[in-house]
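Appendix B, example 12.
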Amino acid sequence: MRKKICLFGLGCLLIAGLPEKTFASRSTNANYNHFAAEPTALIGRWDITVDQNGKPAPAWLEVKLSGYKTLVGYFVSTAGSARPVSEVKFDGKTFRFEIPPQWESGTANLVMEGELTDAGIQGAMTECNGTKYSWKGVKAPYLKRAAAPAWARL
């Protein structure tokens, strides 16, 4: 075991006994950045329409990449505010996440299950009280400005 020598403070003393390979670049490790499939297809904002017994209800999902391999996000159900999603499980075709109950009736987690389709995403949502609804989603449009805003002086 090769030791590093450092004279610049406590941080260096703490790492002095670690093997040199501890500090090797992670980007050189072929197994570090692994995904079962390309995650970019699911990343983004999605406008979702939930079919609540024949009545369309709006919902919204945002999926982001956290670090090298974890998908996280925010979800707004048919009522309420944006709730954090700690992890979106995604295998390249299907995805799933759960959110614990907040103000909803019932004690189970809200469960979103879906799949990528040619038209966007679709799946089923099981609410905290066990009620299950189907839904479909499309990518939300990017809100890019055509030009910089012109501000007036008052």
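The two ends are 70 Å apart (CA to CA). Residues 6 and 13 are 7 Å apart (CA to CA).
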